[in-house]
Amino acid sequence: MTIPEREWKEALAAISEAPRIALACHLGPDGDALGSLLALTIAFNKAGHETVASWGSEPFEVPPHYTYLPRLELLSPPSSFPAAPELMITFDAGSMERLGSLEPNARAAHKLIVIDHHVSNDHFGTINLIDGEAAASAVIVFELLKRMSVPLGKDIATCLYTGIVTDTGRFQYKNTTPEVHRITAELLAAGAPHVEITQTIYNTHPVGYLRLAAAALEKLQVREDAGMVWTWVTTEDLERAKVGLEDIEALIDLVRTADIADVAVVLKQQSDGRYRVSMRSKGAADVGAVATRFGGGGHALAAGFTSVDGDPRATIEEIATALLGA
Ligand code: AMP
Ligand code: MN
Ligand code: MN
């Protein structure tokens, strides 16, 4: 699935005509959302466009693992976003809903460019740069920058490397193609500090996280008939460990290593009592399809949703039923 030439042309024309551009990534941003958003914001600023860059979730804070990203001063809270932008660009959001509080702004935007790589994306833009086979939204931003003849500096390379390294699971997942390595080679040549980036994202955790992970693994549950292992983290666990939800993203990567299961699930309780559900598959199950059934989304091997049920066991029963029925 490639992006039609017509969409590229329209995107380039809309960008070159716009004095002011509003940019937003999905709520609760990850490395790909943040990296893609910042890379293009930096490029637009250099080219003399006025920008506002944000995402629609509170509190408006850059997650601790990504504070090394350059030019964070270009980001501002969603309240500073124009109500009806002339040109708006979204990053890594598979649907309007993923924009959170900035969804109305996107609906009111005169022109809306959607940059994304979710196969489930419903093409909600007026211009859609969507490629379900791209390893990351950052890959599409890389191509857009090439087409805009923007040279890669260290800052932009750092942002795009962040998007690619996180969405390929450090070049482990199936989406790690020869093209991904060719792009990454260019990013390294442009000065992306890859050692510092992976040290910060993957090898630096508060001690509280390690204790919380130990407790979560201690109570790991096996649901053999559904080929699933799962565990859960309550707000009480978080308070005891003195860490936040943003500190425990890596827990699913520990759980998914269980040899007996294809599917790993971690339920993380939010402050409103509901659980954010992270799902990973080793290849047999399509967890994206399961997450979509429960109002979330994602990719075949990595997906998530927010459970309406306050009881992790009830949610797990529903997931098991979906997996066994599929
Ligand atoms: P996570 O487990 O939070 O790292 O999410 C894995 C992937 O699932 C993300 O890259 C998103 O594409 C997707 N995802 C997670 N939560 C949701 C949600 N509530 N709605 C739609 N997609 C989601
Ligand atoms: Mn994302
Ligand atoms: Mn992504």
Largest sheet: 6 strands, mixed
Radius of gyration: 19 Å
Strand-residue proportion: 15-25%
From N to C, what is the helix and strand string? Answer: HEHEEHEEHHHHHEEHHEEHEEH
How many strands? 11
- N-to-C span: 25 Å
The kinds of small molecule bound in this structure are:
adenosine monophosphate, manganese (II) ion
Poorly predicted runs of 5 or more residues: none
Identify the strand order in the major beta sheet.
Answer: 6-7-8-9-11-10
Give the mean pLDDT.
97
Derived from helix and strand composition plus strand pairing, the structural class reads alpha/beta
Shape: globular
Number of helices: 12
Helical residues, percent = 25-40%
Descriptive overview:
With about 325 residues, the chain is an alpha/beta fold. Helix content is about 40%, strand content about 20%. It has helices at about 5-15, 30-45, 105-110, 135-145, 155-165, 180-190, 195-200, 205-220, 235-240, 250-255, 285-295, 310-325, and strands spanning about 20-25, 50-55, 85-90, 110-115, 125-130, 220-225, 230-235, 265-270, 275-280, 295-300, 300-305. It has a six-stranded mixed β-sheet with strand order 6-7-8-9-11-10, sandwiched between helices. It has a five-stranded parallel β-sheet with strand order 2-1-3-4-5. Helix 4 (about 135-145) runs antiparallel to helix 5 (about 155-165). The longest helix is centred in the N-terminal third of the chain and has 16 residues, at about 30-45. The protein starts with a helix and ends with a helix. The relative contact order is 0.10. The mean pLDDT is about 95. Adenosine monophosphate binds near residues 296, 304 and 305.
